[in-house]
Amino acid sequence: MPAGLIALALGGFGIGLTEFVIAGLLPEVAADFHVDAAAAGWLISGYALAVAVGAIGLTAAVTRLPRKGVLLGLMVLFIAGNAVSAVAPDYATMLTGRVLAALCHGAFFGIGSVVAANLVDPARRARAIAIMFTGLTAANVLGVPFGTLLGQQLGWRSTFWAITAIGVLALIGLALLVPRDAGRADSAADHGLRGELRAFRSGQLWLSLTATVLGFGGMFGAFTYIAYTLTGLSGFPAAAVPWLLILFGLGLFAGNAVGGRFADRSVDGTLLVVLAVLAAILVAFALLAALPVAAVIALVLMGAFGFATVPGLQLRVLRSAEDAPTLASGANIAAFNVGNALGAWLGGLAIAAGLGFASPLWVGAAMTLGAFAVIAAAAAALNPRFRSGRQRSTLAPVSNGRPTIRG
């Protein structure tokens, strides 16, 4: 495994902590700044919106720059944002720090996916992307519980200082471990932003982005209200929810690794199987949520199959974008966040309509089936003989001796 992937994963770990740990610290932050829960919630939703903006806008602004240098700059922005949050004297400054850190999120994972894919042989690209996203899953499994505990014991600011320190370590790792050639932009950079925008003429790219919104949004929409499902339907006490979420995080970790391995064999074949099984799991969860043991099993499987889609969805976008993958990769990170917001919104509407705490699971299943239909249509258009389960990608050499991804 190239050492540069470890540095990318460490950066992903820090970014994952920044995104998720705030949820466990909101009461302390709100009390410190004397704001209500609704205002404190903007520290989460505002972050998500900034991720989407940065994933496209910031990525578009740096298309001509060497990718390694861009990753280093993004990590500096990440460090600055968390340091601002750690010393924030008021709510407005805290929100500013959150937005600064969020701007680097989408661009880091978008550009990092391209760099990770070009660090390895073509047959291992999805696994390389999965390794980078392992940092994100590890943040859920280990970082968030311990980050919340640290904040509760030593004050919420200590958590953001710890994240800032992780950012410094990631910056050093990126500088030392990511090869200079891996940071060299491919031939698309010669055309700048216009060359990157040409990739969006591809119908396959738009189908891939749509599948990301629906597929990941289906899982995340169900997960958004999972605490209500576990306590209101499954009968678990509120104190058990954090431990159950660790089990969910273990599912994410396993699904990410296995999904990357199988996506290297067949992107569309893997996505079709995973999405079909995920939809079935969500339906079973909705039907069996009142049974505690069944609910725990379904929770773990939901995490595993939900995140097993991520390497395949990201690799499919890279292939669909041919020789200009950077902006498209960032757009897919934005699509993940749009899916998160859409799934959460639709799940909330279902609960508000009086359909109960199982309704977000049904909404998630419907969205997942929509993603399955989109991938099936995209695969059929790309290769009418897709039923054989085989899909090929073409590769074009670049100046650093490694092939870039083409559709």
UniProtKB/TrEMBL annotation:
InterPro entries in UniProt: MFS, MFS_dom, MFS_Efflux_Transporters, MFS_trans_sf
Molecular function per GO: transmembrane transporter activity
Record's GO cellular component terms: plasma membrane
Cell compartment(s), UniProt: Cell membrane
Database matches in Gene3D superfamilies: MFS general substrate transporter like domains
Entry superkingdom: Bacteria
Keyword Acetylation: no
Membrane topology term: Multi-pass membrane protein
Swiss-Prot/TrEMBL keywords: Cell membrane, Membrane, Transmembrane, Transmembrane helix
Keyword Repeat: no
Spans through the membrane: 39-62, 69-88, 100-120, 127-147, 159-178, 205-228, 240-258, 270-288, 294-313, 334-355, 361-382
SUPFAM superfamilies (alphabetical): MFS general substrate transporter
The Major facilitator superfamily (MFS) profile domain, residue ranges: 4-388
CDD domains per record: MFS_NepI_like
Name by which UniProt lists this protein: DHA1 family inner membrane transport protein
Native source species: Leifsonia shinshuensis
